[in-house]
Amino acid sequence: MVAPPIPFARSPRPTLGVEWEIALIDPETRDLAPQAEAVIDLVKASHPEVHLEKEFLQNTVELVTGVHETVPAAIGELAHDLACVKEAAEKLGLRLWASGSHPFSDFRKNPISAKMTYAEIINRTRYWGQQMLIWGIHVHVGISHEDRVWPIINALMTRYPHLLALTASSPGWDGIDTGYASNRTMLYQQLPTAGMPYQFTSWADWEEYMHDQSISGVINHTGSMHFDIRPAAKWGTIEVRVSDATSNLRELAAVVALTHCLVVHYDRMLDRGEELPRLQPWHVAENKWRAARYGLEALVITSRDTDERWVTQELAELVDDLAPLAEELGCPDELKLVSEILERGAGYQRQRRIYQRTGDWRDVIDATCAEMEGMVTDA
């Protein structure tokens, strides 16, 4: 039986779109505040041009850009939108905050948004689905043809630990230090429609797979697979969903620039008839775990022969190697911010240092809210 086609809205240029999930914080308790709907309504009334989405949890607002040609343009839109959301949140006595997960909030006390598909997800996934107090970044990059999608996704999976280590910001969970850089990564993969994509070799393979998932009922409650990297056929993009939510625009700009450059780099390799990199599935899985566990301190597998290097060394070289392409794509300054993260430390490192010093996750929340307010991009 031939699977029904999945039309891919081909993008003639490598355009860009970004989604950034941020949460609302009660400044007294430092706990999550389920007032996203009120914030969104206030923004809609005062700034109708701002595109916000309700998310799985009532404490979360998702900032969604339009289609842009460059990273600075996308980040510029997010900066404007963030200011509008901050204005609305302050009217309600709230602060804005973003990380991969909240270090002490009780998932049992955080209501989900009133949307039938969300209720169906909880009904199906129960305990694991109820725990999704997690936030991430989704970066869309336009692709010219569906035949390029899976070779590029498989190549991007060799850079999974690089994208995650830069943004890992969820060491705390249920009041404890988990020892992980990104506990969000470990939580999210428990859902049946989430986790690493299979290494499909063609668009036809993807169509057959999605057909099977539809017949078996796997995706009946969501309509799609929420892989860490996936095709977004409706938009003609590859959607990279690897990263924890950053606490600030500056680090967001860095990971968006790196993602944009990597996708275009692999697309250009196809233009030149070059073979794209690919690792064995077990190496990809191990790299994902190492980045989630160790973050920027991870030793990652870099070849099919199981060679290894420190992810910080890899990232430093990537910034240099991709610099000419970043110039062409209009994001050289944003790509250089990767080096700034390597020097300052990732979000999980900053959070852990504070918690080890004070023993109080509320201090971590305060510091992370301050990063949202103060670490703006001037790249």
Structural class: alpha+beta
Number of strands: 13
Low-confidence stretches: none
DSSP strand (E) fraction? Answer: 5-15%
Question: What's the short version?
Answer:
The chain has helices at 36-46, 71-91, 116-130, 149-156, 160-167, 183-188, 203-216, 249-271, 281-294, 311-329, 332-344, 347-358, 361-374; strands spanning 16-25, 52-54, 60-64, 95-97, 137-142, 172-173, 176-177, 194-195, 226-227, 229-232, 237-240, 299-301, 308-310. It has 379 residues and is of the alpha+beta class. It has one domain (16-374): Creatine Kinase, Chain A, domain 2 (2-Layer Sandwich), CATH 3.30.590.
Descriptive overview:
Belongs to the glutamate--cysteine ligase type 2 family. YbdK subfamily. One of its GO terms (biological process) is modified amino acid biosynthetic process. ATP-dependent carboxylate-amine ligase which exhibits weak glutamate--cysteine ligase activity. GO terms for molecular function: ATP binding; glutamate-cysteine ligase activity. InterPro entries: GCL_type2/YbdK_subfam, GCS2, Gln_synth/guanido_kin_cat_dom, YbdK. The chain has 379 residues and is an alpha+beta fold. It has one domain (16-374): Creatine Kinase, Chain A, domain 2 (2-Layer Sandwich), CATH 3.30.590. It has helices at residues 36-46, 71-91, 116-130, 149-156, 160-167, 183-188, 203-216, 249-271, 281-294, 311-329, 332-344, 347-358, 361-374; strands spanning 16-25, 52-54, 60-64, 95-97, 137-142, 172-173, 176-177, 194-195, 226-227, 229-232, 237-240, 299-301, 308-310. The strands form four sheets. Strands 1, 2, 3, 4, 5, 10 and 11 form a seven-stranded antiparallel sheet that branches. It has a two-stranded antiparallel sheet with strand order 6-7. Helix 8 packs across helix 10 and helix 12 (347-358) packs across helix 13 (361-374). The model has no long low-confidence stretch (mean pLDDT 94).
